[in-house]
Amino acid sequence: MERPIRVLRFGSSVLRSEADLPTAVQEIYREWRRGAAVVAVVSAFGDTTDDLLKRAEQLGLPPSPGAVAALLATGEAAASALLTLALQRSGLPATLLDAHTARLATRGDLLDAELVVASSDGIRRALRDNIVVIPGLAGRDGDRPVPSGPPHPPLRVALLGCGTVGGGVLERLLARPDLFRVIGVAVRDRERALRSGLPHRLPVAGPVALAEGEADVVVELLGGREPARRAVVRALKLGKSVVTANKALLAEEIDSLEGLAARSGARLLYSASVGGALPALETVRRCAGRIRAISGVLNGTCNYVLDRLTAGDSFETAVAAARTSGFAEVDPALDLDGSDAAQKLTLLVREAFGVLPRWDALPRLGIAGLDRKSLASAGRRGRVVRLVASAERTPAGLRASIRPVEVPRAHPFARTSGAGNALRIETTDGEVIDVAAQGAGRWPTCEAVLADLYDLAAAHRDSAGLEETAEAEEGAA
Length: 477
Prior knowledge:
Elements: E1 5-10, H1 21-33, E2 37-42, H2 48-58, H3 65-89, E3 94-96, H4 99-102, E4 104-107, E5 114-117, H5 121-127, E6 131-135, E7 155-160, H6 164-174, E8 180-186, H7 190-195, H8 207-211, E9 217-220, H9 228-237, E10 241-244, H10 247-264, E11 268-269, H11 280-287, E12 291-297, H12 300-310, H13 315-324, H14 333-336, H15 339-353, H16 372-380, E13 383-394, E14 397-408, E15 420-427, E16 432-438, H17 442-476
Parallel strand pairs: 1-2, 2-6, 3-6, 7-8, 7-9, 9-10, 10-11
Antiparallel strand pairs: 4-5, 12-13, 12-15, 13-14, 15-16
């Protein structure tokens, strides 16, 4: 199944400064998680080129055509490089190509542009696995659609949890007051949160009380079962949409929670619960009905520990290093014994095959029993050990497991490290679909949460627009 190509052009009226990079990253990510191959064409920030020309004039340098072109290229290259780094920080596979190599031309509108490449090999090769960023004059203000009509009220957000991921989400929400208004934050330790940068002006309340307040949407990033479950249930019963990354809760109660949402007219979105920035659930949904098997590397803690073991560390030293690097919890038992991967696999199986197995009944073998000698032996044979979660439909029913597997070095699973995650889908007609991205960490998980919120904000604006149209028609009648 060939992916559609989306060309997103970021002109200087959109990328006015480095502060606008997160917005560009989110726009790119939303297209990529929908399954598109994305090309981002980037011009210089704001007035960068004009500023450079003024500096040249002040120095008495003649603005020759060649010099102007060089200044334009300098500004575009800098903005493109920074956008590429911002994408990579968010865990997205991005590569920067220079305009000469890409030889890019586009035609059509912003999102449905057709890619025309004089020599397509380089860019199409890069697009197989990466988001491609290219410096180039993206054009004037008219390059991007500008909302028409009066602005709609922002989506009111209650944020439950303001730790590593929650803090990142809060930062991004506060940067877009046109789309979101944070009405309160639930934290376990208010003073610690304030010391970490939580704005004093934001109300702080208990999670259930905050979920019952005036929010349109509740973002649950507390983790664990309680009080997260009580807050989510209460929000859904009141008709408030919920965005969550809580795979432990969803793996056991996704059916009942979605039932609550359906009855109240709310939405339950949970892209970040499996794979962080890896669009695992979205990719499986697009292939549903023709999937034979799914498999994936879904736990970054195990990746990191396995790499350290391969490098010669003891198991205890490797786990300690994972904690220090932020890839492991204080108690990483659920990661190391395969439970975390089992919870994620359960949600993928539900999307792929329409059944929800008990995650704790899935056969699973963690990595605690592995030693440096067995990993070194695999390395000498050109193979890498990864904890692989897999499920397939067989004539006898569903077969699933989580266990360490040796894979060739060239396999996509072997290329995961640290927080890297990867997913493989095998279809009934023989197609193999691979996708990879960072599966954990502040910014990768933050992008997935925000993508769900942007989808809700778009639906909120559309709903408000329909209501205004209906009122106008009633008035005209």
